[in-house]
Amino acid sequence: MSPLGLRPTTLTAFPLPTAAAALALLLFGLGRVFFLAYPDAFIAYPETQAEYNFYKQDLRCKAMQPVAQVVIQGTSRLELVQKIPLFEKRWHTKDRMLNVSQPLNTFWHMNLLHRRNPGLLNSAELWIMDVLPAQMRVAWGFNERDALFLRESTLAEKLRVRGAAHRAQALTDGLLPVWSQHHSVANWGRALLTLNASPQERLDTLTAIDGNRLPDITGARSAIPTDPQVVKKMFAEVLYTPGRPISRIQIEAFHEILARRPPSTHLLLIHPPFRGDFGVMVDQMGGTDSKDEMRRFIESAGGAGVHVEWLESPGDLDFTDEDFAPDGIHGSFSGIKKYEKHFARRYREWIPLAAEEAPPAPND
């Protein structure tokens, strides 16, 4: 007996878990098995705008299985591009062109789309991406605790998460997806009833949802401002990200994107111009350094088959004020048409046309 009168005991066996602990382990195990068996069970029932925007394009690719000669993978600035007008006998309309642009499309989101749809560029002759400083940083459209990132990220990407606590969360979620697969009771019911739905059925279900009513990745449901000056300031902060940290995950995703380019595919990395007053706003918000750093980063990627066009002045694309939306960065209807004509010029410049597709020779 010890001097304090305590009787020492020897542990002869580990104690059995309580019934509650055993039940919790069983449920976690069953949940893990379920998500391994049905990884896409919930993609038609997004919980955030980021999930809605990404899975909408992902399901379009899976449902259509497109054989596209032109792939446009941009941000909201290129969403409305519908065709590449070449010559009378050759138009890239929906059967030849695939536009998978989405709002605040980052390099990680772009790379993920290719990871989930590896044949996307199999027939591509021209691949177009528009670039923004926000795409290389931890910004409004991307953070490392977002459910979409936790669910779809690779082990290498989880290991690049900034901060030990957040990195531990990402790694833990890879084993037990308690954060990335946190769904409402209603969505659990819907998912269980549609486990074997086809991509087209899932796409129909998702597109029936108003994505604007979903919360953003911060969990907020904020209305889009209507004052043009407020909108312009918001986009200057969101897109040119003054003071935001660079994301190693986005940098590596960009390099993986470049590695996915087939040798015969021309990749155009374009920074479209903005209206002069928007440029002033970017400077006032302190976004000049971020913009210049992004430009150096993108221009370093140029080379054989990779074309970089960093445009800032409206005159670079013959834009007038009428070619911009009120926010000064998106194109109006006439501006979108000028994008389409510009891409057509680049196509004709870089990609040989068959004899029957070429325009008639001018008369001498």
Q: What key phrases describe this protein's structure?
A:
two-stranded antiparallel ribbon, 13 helices, 7 strands, globular
Strand order of the largest sheet: 4-1-5-6-7
Described by the principal axes of the CA atoms, the overall outline is globular
- The fraction of residues assigned to DSSP E strands is 5-15%
Distance between the termini: 115 Å
Kindly state the mean pLDDT as a whole number? 85
Low-confidence stretches: none
Summed up, the helix count is 13
Rounded to the nearest angstrom, the radius of gyration is 25 Å
Helical residues, percent? 40-55%
Can you tell me about this structure?
This protein is globular. It has helices at about 20-35, 50-65, 105-115, 145-150, 155-160, 165-175, 185-195, 200-205, 230-240, 250-260, 275-285, 290-300, 335-350; strands at about 70, 85, 90, 95-100, 125-130, 265-270, 305-310. The termini are far apart. The protein is α/β, with parallel strands linked by helices and about 375 residues long. It contains 13 helices and 7 strands. Helix 2 (about 50-65) packs antiparallel against helix 8, helix 3 (about 105-115) packs across helix 10 (about 250-260) and helix 9 (about 230-240) packs across helix 11 (about 275-285). A 5-stranded parallel sheet has the order 4-1-5-6-7, covered by helices on one side. A two-stranded antiparallel ribbon has the order 2-3.
Could you give a quick summary of the protein structure above?
This protein is an alpha/beta fold.
Secondary-structure blueprint:
Elements: H1 19-37, H2 49-64, E1 70-72, E2 84-87, E3 90-92, E4 97-99, H3 107-116, E5 126-130, H4 147-152, H5 155-159, H6 164-175, H7 185-193, H8 199-207, H9 228-240, H10 248-259, E6 266-271, H11 276-284, H12 288-299, E7 306-310, H13 333-350
Helix pairs in contact: 2-8, 3-10, 9-11
